[in-house]
Design a protein that fits this description.
The structure holds 2 protein chains of 2 kinds. By secondary structure, chain A is of the alpha/beta class. Chain A is built from 5 helices and 5 strands, in the order βαβαβαβαβα. In chain B, β9 and β10 form a beta hairpin. Classes of the chains: A alpha/beta, B alpha/beta.
Chain lengths: 135, 497
């Protein structure tokens, strides 16, 4: 591999960012971080990540959806796989499949927090290889 | 039964008396129309036998007067000219029957008895009619009572009969469904209810398969005249199996719905706030145990420390939640006393000083020896100033300053807590008292907080009839001002001192 694959972590919880950065770096990924939607969108442009791990609930309870929609409308970035994470599960009334109807791609996925380190690495690798075969 | 015999022939008068008296009739006599009329007016007669041909006042004229006086008295004509013409003429003037002269006792009795029977029946009929009128009046009174009750209900009521025509309604429903101008007894449901789904809902109660329900309830959302949610209860009215109509009761549950929504939003936020730190702790511990973050002992130890810090902040969150719920509860017992806040302020600063000294902060207390008393719960005041002063420490810069200043105004005691910290941007300032709101600022990313501290502050201040104000400048610092009503005016306190 000519360069390390780059993961962008977008989450307002500093512990998640720090922990997942440590884990992903330990597994050979290059990691960029952002702590809000706005910072995240900037980082997408500057860092050109291969995959984004995105928190659903940031400044608003559905900030992650707004972030993803913005990205999926942009032809330059819509193919970047998104792994959406949330501490609030479906039991609180969110329906992930419907919220982004028509936007989700085969290379996107979601999981509820906590996503333990090994599982995170597994999901990230899966999505990256799916993205590679799609392209 | 009273009978009056009016005839100018004495023989007829006495003859009639002799025939009628033994039959149990009370008989009176008069010799001409005028005298007869006087007697009618003086007494209560049931039947009059009257001769047509008399001096002074004839039978026809007298009968006219009697009819005007009391149309129910039975009048029977005695006539010597028993022609069809005279009889018809007499009937026209109100006679019940006639007896041709000369007559036998049996003929007279037959006519009189029939007349008396008619009189009795008429009287009974009138009594029955009066009784019926009385009952109708009672029914009307009952109806107006029901109307008064129905009209006073806050719930809206619409009653349609089996032909879907309106029979009863109240002002509440007119307002709720905006029906003014359309409502009228007997009008068809389709003319009154313009909203299709509501008409369908009521229509459903008429369907035969609804017969097994005594009541059906459904919620309906109204957009006009304003956004409201109504609970509609539909009850078919039946009488021995026959459908009489449908009673619809409308209850406005908009307020309840709003409370429900606020509640579930709060629960969602709490769930998020509780799960996020727990998930972080589990993540750290799991990474430590599996070595997912590598083998650097410093990195691994650091993760455990972060997990511990997160556990601690979770405990604080639970404490804040309990405090918050306690303040929410209407039943909270406040032990309010007349309180000089200088003690509370000095005590709180002493308690928090070590925390501030870690950052090299200086504390400045600008307090007089004593403050005019405020009526307050000591425990809540300690909580209030602990939250404000610990914020002033947490969000301060190293080597910064925390100033606490209390100054009595005219009606309010103002206590200021000022820091020289990071400040709050204008966009965030209106939200800082909201539950779980946290300013997103890279400089305070690692500052632990529950997001409830200032919500608690606001609740305490409000429960003491006070106000909280905040001014802030990014990079310069933030000043919170708590304004509590004083028990006495400053001038009065001075006069007493």
């Amino acid at each position: 591999m000519d360069r390390k694959q780059r993961i962008l972590l977008v989450d307002d919880d500093v512990d998640f960012v720090d922990l997942n950065r440590a884990v992903l770096e330990n597994h050979g990924f290059d990691v960029a971080t952002a702590f809000s939607s706005r910072e995240g969108l900037d980082k997408v442009r500057f860092e050109q990540p291969d995959l984004i791990v995105l928190d659903l609930m940031m400044e608003k309870h559905d900030s992650g959806f707004a972030f993803a929609k913005t990205l999926k409308k942009d032809p330059l970035y819509r193919t970047i796989p998104i792994l959406m994470l949330t501490a609030v599960s479906e039991s609180t009334g969110y329906d992930f499949s419907q919220e982004l109807d028509g936007y989700w791609m085969k290379t996107d996925d979601y999981a509820s927090k906590p996503l333990l380190p090994d599982e995170l690495v597994k999901r990230v690798k899966e999505l990256l290889s799916r993205a590679k075969s799609e392209a | 039964m009273h009978i009056l015999v009016v005839d100018d022939e004495r023989g007829i008068r006495e003859g009639c008396r002799r025939i009628l008296a033994p039959e149990g009739y009370a008989v009176d006599v008069a010799e001409d129309g005028r005298a007869g009329l006087e007697k009618v007016r003086a007494g209560a007669f049931d039947l009059i036998l009257v001769d047509l041909m008399m001096p002074l006042m004839g039978g026809i004229e007298m009968m006219e007067h009697v009819s005007a006086y009391d149309p129910e008295i039975i009048m029977i004509v005695i006539t010597g000219f028993a022609t069809v013409e005279t009889a018809v003429d007499a009937m026209k003037h109100g006679a019940y029957d006639y007896v041709p002269k000369p007559f036998t006792p049996d003929q007279l009795l037959a006519v009189v008895n029939r007349g008396i029977e008619t009189r009795r029946l008429r009287r009974e009929a009138r009594q029955l009619m009066e009784e019926r009128d009385q009952k109708l009046l009672e029914v009307a009174n009952e109806t107006s009572k029901i109307h008064a009750i129905v009209n006073s209900l806050a719930d809206g009521i619409l009653v349609f009969n089996s032909d879907k025509q309106l029979v009863l309604w109240n002002p509440a429903v007119v307002k709720m469904l905006d029906l003014s101008g359309r409502i009228e007894a007997g009008r068809a449901m389709s003319d009154i209810i313009s909203r299709k789904e509501l008409a369908e809902m009521i229509g459903k109660a008429y369907l035969s398969h609804s017969a097994k329900y005594t009541m059906q309830s459904e919620e309906i959302e109204l957009a006009a005249p304003e956004a409201r949610t109504l609970m509609v209860n539909l009850s078919p009215v039946r009488d021995s199996g026959r459908e009489l109509g449908v009673v619809s009761v409308f209850r406005d549950i908009t307020g309840l719905k709003e409370i429900d929504q606020i509640k579930s939003q709060f629960v969602t936020m709490v769930a998020h706030e509780l799960r996020a730190p727990l998930a972080a702790v589990e993540g750290y511990l799991s990474a430590f145990l599996t070595g997912a973050a590598g083998s650097d002992p410093q990195v691994n130890r650091n993760m455990l420390e972060r997990a511990k810090a997160r556990t601690h902040s979770l405990l604080e969150l639970v404490n804040d939640l309990l405090q918050f719920i306690k303040l929410e509860s209407k039943k909270v017992v406040r032990k309010k006393e007349l309180l000089d806040l200088t003690g509370v302020l000095r005590g709180t600063v002493e308690l928090l000083k070590p925390l501030g000294e870690e950052k090299g902060l200086r504390f400045k207390l600008e307090l007089p020896d004593s403050l005019p008393p405020v009526e307050a719960d000591r425990g809540e005041m300690e909580q209030l100033f602990t939250n404000l002063i610990s914020n002033a420490i947490k969000y301060n810069v190293n080597q910064g300053k925390v100033t606490i200043r209390a100054k009595p105004g005219n009606h309010f005691l103002d206590i200021k807590v000022a820091d020289t910290g990071v400040g709050i941007d204008e966009e965030s300032l209106p939200h800082i008292f909201e539950e779980f709101y946290r300013v997103s600022d890279p400089k305070t990313r690692y500052t632990p907080g529950t997001g409830l501290g200032l919500s608690i502050v606001r609740k305490i201040v409000e429960s003491h009839f006070g106000r909280i104000e905040v001014t802030s400048k990014v990079g310069k610092g933030t000043t919170f001002t708590v304004r509590l009503p004083m028990k006495q005016r400053m001038s009065e306190a001075r006069n007493q001192g």
